[in-house]
Amino acid sequence: MLTKGMNMKVKEMKTNLGIIKGLELSFDKVIDETWEEPMGPTPYPSITDLREWDMKLLNKFKPFYLPYCDVCCLCTFGKCDLTGDKRGACGLNMAAQQSRIVLLACCIGASTHIAHARHLVEHLIEKYGRNSPLDVGGLNIDLEAPITRLVCGIKPKKLKDLEDALDYCERQLTTLLSATHTGQEGSNLDFESKVLHAGMIDHLGLEIADMAQISVLGYPKADPEAPLTDLGFGITDVSKPTILVIGHNVPSSVGIIDYITDKGLSGKIEVVGICCTAHDATRYSSMAKIIGPISWQLRFIRSGLADLIVVDEQCIRADTLVEAQKVKTPVIASSPQNCLGLQNKTKISSKAVISDLTEGKIPGALILDPDKVGEVAVETVMTVAPKRNKYKIIPEIEKIVETTQACTECNECVRACPNNQPISKAVKEAAKGDLNPLAEILESCVGCARCESACPNDLPLHSFMVRAGEKELLGEKFKMRIGRGAIQDVEIREVGGPIVLGDIPGVVALVGCSNYPHSGKELVEIAEEFAKRRFIVVTSGCSAMTLAMEKDDEGKTLYEKYPGNFDAGGIVNVGSCVANAHIAGAAIKIANIFAKRNLRANYEEIADYILNRVGAVGVAWGAYSQKAASIASGCWRLGVPVIVGPHGAKYRRMLLGRKDKTEDWYVYDARTGDKIYGGPAPEHLFTTVETKEEAIVLIAKLVMRPNDTSKGRAIKLTHYIDLHKRLYGSMPDDIHLFVRHKADIPITMKDEILKVLEERKWKETRIPDPTLLPRMIRKKKGD
Amino acid sequence: MTVKAEPWQKAEIAGPKKALLIMKPEVVVAMAKKANRPILVVGHQAVEDYSNDVKMIDYAIRISNAAGIPMVVTAHIANECLKRGFSPAGSMSAMEIGNRLNDPQWRGLDGGGTYDLAMFMGLPYYMQFVILSGLKHFSPNLKTISLDRFYNPHATWSFPNISVKDWNENFEIIIDKLKGEK
C-alpha cells in the first residue's frame, strides 16, 4: 500500500536536543511494506528497463514491415519518399518509419485505455471515496491485480492506490509519444521495443480500469456463473421509450440506470447498448440489454428504435449526431473525448436542457456529469419517444425497387467496401424486386457505410441492406453470459498445472472488434472448435458478443452450451475491452500461483515463463482499432502470440519467426545452462491469416511451448495434426520440428509420424527447462 | 484507349512508385521467361467462385505447369490442388512466404537460390497490397507481378482493373505462350 502527498507541520516541539519551531515535513510517498514478497528488479520500469527482453523477442520474432504507402507526411520537411533504401529529410528509413507508425498506433490505443482508467478512477473516487476497497473476487481472489503487481511492484488495496500506477502510465505514455517526434528515435528495433512498452502500460491501464469498476460498481466478481443477458437487434421492447448507449466508459450508463431505479421507472424504459458500454451496463444491472457489436450502430440508429442516444467514448461513429438527426433522435455526449460539437450543458439546469431537447431546439447536448446525464436522458426520452413514434429512415421495399433503377453498376460501392462485397450486383437484383442478395450482404457487413459515401447517385445502400435483412435482424434474440471479470485463484490452481504441462492443450483468447472478413459466424466456429477440443476459450468485447449471435439446432447459443468457468471446455466471457486485463492476468497468475514465481516487479522472468510454458494464443479476428494494437503489443511483450484476421495485415508489421532457421529456436536449459533446440514454439508472435481454417490450424500450432511434457505435446500434436488433416487435407510438413523424442508422438498416429520423421532425418532431443534468460540458469557449465 | 492505373480499392494509394500496367499478356510471359528463379504465390480466393466457370486455382496450376514455375499456396487451399492432381511446391501462410521472399539469404523452397520474380494471385486485395509493398521496399532484387484482375499498385507490374472476360482471355494467352516458351 502506498500513501502519497503527506505533509506534517509542527508548531513547536521540545526534544532533548532543544526546541524545534516551525518544523514542516513533506513526504512524496510513503510505502507500507507489509507485502512479504521482495521487490523484483524492475518496479515501474522505464522505457529502456526491459529493452534487453524486448530485443530477445525481436531477435526471435523479427519484424516484417508492410508499409501502406511510400511516403512519410508527419512533418513539414515532407512529404518524404522513403521507397526502398531512401531516407527522409530527417534521416529516417522505411523500417523505422513503419515501426514509428506502429508505436503511434499503440500510443493512441494505450492512451485511450489509460485515459479511460483515469476518468473512471477519478469519478469513482469522487463518488465513493478514495478509501473504497478494491475487490475483484472476494475470497476467491487473493492475487487481485497481477499486472499492477508485476509492472509496478505494488499491491493496491484501495481506489487511491491506483493513482500512482496511473501516474506511471501517463509518464510512460508521454515519453513514448515523444520518441515519435521527428529527430528522436532512429532505430526500428528501438521503436519496436517502445511498442512493447506501450503494450505493457496499456495492459496496466486496462487492469486499473476494470479493477476500479468491478470493485465499486458491484459487477460480477470473478463469477463463472455470471447470469445470461439478452443480446440482439430484436431484444428491444419497441413499445417502450428506448435509450441507446454507445461506447466504452460506463458512468453515464450507470447514471441512467440509477435514475430509472430511483424514480421507480424500472420496466418502463429500455436501456440498450452497443459495444463495450453495453457489456459494462449489463455487468452493472440486469436492466440493461445488448444490441450488438460496433458494426450494429448504423443499422440500429437508422431503424429508429432508439428514442435517445447517449455516447461516451471510443469506437463510436463520428457521424452519430448526423445519423441521429435523420431519425429525430436527440443525442447526449458524455465524454470530454467525444463532444460531437454539442453545447456544453453540464452547468445548465436539467429542466432547461430537457426542455430544449424535447422541443427539438437543440439536436443534443454535452453533459459531463454522469448523474445529470441519467436525469436528462430519462426525462427526455419519456417525452421524446411518443413524439418520435420510432421514426425511421429505412426505405420501404417499393421505394428501394424504384430508386435502385438509377444504379449504373459503376462498382464504386464495391470498390469502397472493405470486404469487396458484390453490392452493385445486389442492387441490380433489388431493382428487379429481389432483395435477398442485399440481405446476404448485410450478414457480412461491417456497418461502415463507405458504399454509400462512394455512390455517385447517393443511394442509401446500407439502409437498403437493413430493410432487406429486417426480418433476420428483428429475429436476433440471443443469450450471452455477462462479463465475469477476473479469473479466480482457485481456478488457476486447478488448471495451471494442466496448462503448463500441456494436458489442457491451450488457452485461446477470442477478443477484439467486429471488422470481420465475412460474417461473425466464422468466429463462432473457431470458438466451438476449441471448446469441443477442451481448450479454454476466453473472450471479451465485441468478439464476446459475436459468440452469442448464433444458435444451434436446439436454439442454444455457445454461452448456453458451454460453462463459463476457466477450465477445459469453458467459454469464458471476461467482459468489456478493459477486461482483457484478466486474460493477460490469468497467464501471469499461472506463473505465480502454480509455479510460485515471484511476481512483484519481476516482468522479465514472468514473461519468459509465459513465453516458454503457457500455451496461450490471442485471436483478434476482426481487429480494427489502435486499442486492439496496443492490447496485442501487451500480449507480445508477455510472450503471448496473437493472430489477426486478414484486415489485421493493415497493422503494417508482423512479428514472425522462421522455423526454417534452426539457430533461432535454441533456449537455455535452466537446469544445466546447455543450449537446447526448443523448436518453433510458438512460431510467431504476431501474424495475419486469410481464412478461418488457417486460423484454426495455426491456433492449434501456436499453443505448443518448449516446456510441454511429452504427454502434453502429444495432446497438442494430436489436435494440430487432426485439424491440419481435416482442413488442409494433409499432414503438416513441420511435425519433425515439434517432436522432441518418440514419447511426444500421439499413439494413434505413431506409424505415419514415424514415417515422416524418418524422411526428415529427425534426431531426438531432450525437453529443456526452457528460458531465454541466462540469469535463470541454476547450474552453470563448469560448476 | 486510356487505362488508368487506379487501385481497385480506391483509397489504397501507394505513393511515388507505382506498378507498371500490364497492357498485354505478353509482358507477363516475357517477365517469366526473363526470370532465373520465378515463383507463383496463390491465395485462398483462387478457390472461390470468382470467375464464371473457371476458378483462379485452375489458371494458377496451368501457369505453373506451363512454365515450370513453382507454386506456393497460402491459407488452407493445398488440398484443392491435390484434388486436381497437382502438388504445390509449398504451402505456407501469405505472411510467411512474404517474409521469406523479403529475406535475401533465403535459398527458396528447393534450396536452389533466391527468387527474382514473384507472381501473386488470389489473396485478399488489401493483404496482397501490403505484402507487395513490403517486397517493394525491402527486396530490391525481387520483381513482383499481380496477376489478379485488379490494379495493385505496390507490384512491379500489375493488370489494370479489368473484366473477368478480359482477365480470362489474358490468362489463356499467357498460358499458351508460356507453353510455347517452355
Quick overview:
The complex is a heterodimer of chains A (783) and B (182). With 783 residues, chain A is an alpha/beta fold.
Descriptive account of the structure:
The complex is a heterodimer of chains A (783) and B (182). By secondary structure, chain A is α/β, with parallel strands linked by helices. Chain A folds into five domains: 1-30, no CATH class; 31-217, Carbon monoxide dehydrogenase alpha subunit. Chain M, domain 1 (Helicase, Ruva Protein, domain 3); 233-388, Rossmann fold (3-Layer(aba) Sandwich); 397-459, no CATH class; 480-775, Rossmann fold (3-Layer(aba) Sandwich). In chain A, the strands form six sheets. In chain A, strands 3-19-22-18-17-14-15-16 form an eight-stranded mixed β-sheet, sandwiched between helices. Chain A has a six-stranded parallel β-sheet with strand order 9-8-7-10-11-12, sandwiched between helices. In chain A, helix 20 links the parallel strand 14 (507-510) and strand 15. In chain A, helix 2 runs parallel beside helix 5 (188-217) and helix 4 (161-178) runs antiparallel to helix 5 (188-217). Chain B has 182 residues and is α/β, with parallel strands linked by helices. Chain B has a single domain (22-181), classed as 3-Layer(aba) Sandwich (Rossmann fold), CATH 3.40.50.1220. Chain B has a seven-stranded parallel β-sheet, sandwiched between helices. In chain B, strand 2 (38-42), helix 2 and strand 3 form a beta-alpha-beta unit. The longest helix of chain B is centred in the last third of the chain and has 18 residues, at 164-181. The relative contact order of chain B is 0.22. The model of chain B has no long low-confidence stretch (mean pLDDT 93). Classes of the chains: A alpha/beta (783), B alpha/beta (182). Chains A and B meet through helix 13, strand 22 and helix 26 of A and helix 3, helix 4 and helix 5 of B.
